[in-house]
Amino acid sequence: MESHEEEVHLLSRVEILEPLTQEDLRGLLRRSLEKHLEAGETFFTPEDTSERLFILKKGRVRIFRQSDGRELTLAEIEPETIFGEMALTAQRLRGSYAQVIEPSILISMSREELEHIIEENPQVGNRLVHLLSERLGSYESRMEDLTLKEVPARLANLILLLCEEEGVMTRQDIKIPYHYTHERLGTMIGANREAVTRAFATLQDEGAVELRRRLIHVSDIEALRRVAGRPSPQDIPRDINP
User: Quick one: which of 84, 148, 182, 229 has the fewest CB in 10 Å?
Assistant: First the structure.
């Protein structure tokens, strides 16, 4: 069980809360609710009208939508991440669910608590606006991929995103340290398991990825970029001052 000071240290690493003092964070912890949830539990649904912001203290959570009996994963949340911010705005993520992937501990705060924090420290509000902008851009990019790209390109783009977010550099390649089944990858790119298996085979044939001990290894990130339709950094034109 973590000490109170360890919990304060954890909150200090949450991006939008970094401007707060240690005393501010202690007060926030005293006024917040903590939930312990088991894998498979759904704790937020489209019918939920509560306006709360969540911080994942431990575990893993996914945000998803349902359509025609199929699920589309919008995001997977890792520890020390804040989420649920859309429920605090008029741009509510309609039709979204939040489900625990593995045993998790959540800290939640009310809209009133967040507004009080922002009044006392406007930098928190600035960071929240930046976070909203980033995540909206990410969701829009995902929706564009689903509409315009074939499954191999969508899978390649997702693996590139996983490399950026959680990839570990080894001597030979980039390893995704968390196990993703083909079915789970499918919910993240809007494809069934069989289509993901075929797409993964395509990426292997291109020499872009390998599957070792159930983990994805990126052997050739440039090949992965080509399949994803993303330009390499050196191919992006730079502004030239006249």
Answer: 148
Q: What is the pLDDT of residues 182-222, one digit of tens each?
A: 999 999 999 999 999 999 999 999 999 999 999 999 999 99
Domain 150-235: give its CATH architecture: Orthogonal Bundle (1.10)
Rounded Cα gap, residues 190 and 71, in angstroms: 8
pLDDT digits (tens, 9 = 90+) for 12-29: 888 889 999 999 999 888
CA atoms within 13 Å, Cβ hemisphere of 28: 32
CATH-assigned architecture of domain 4-146: Sandwich (2.60)
Alpha carbon distance 12, 23 (integer Å): 11
pTM for this model (two decimals): 0.75
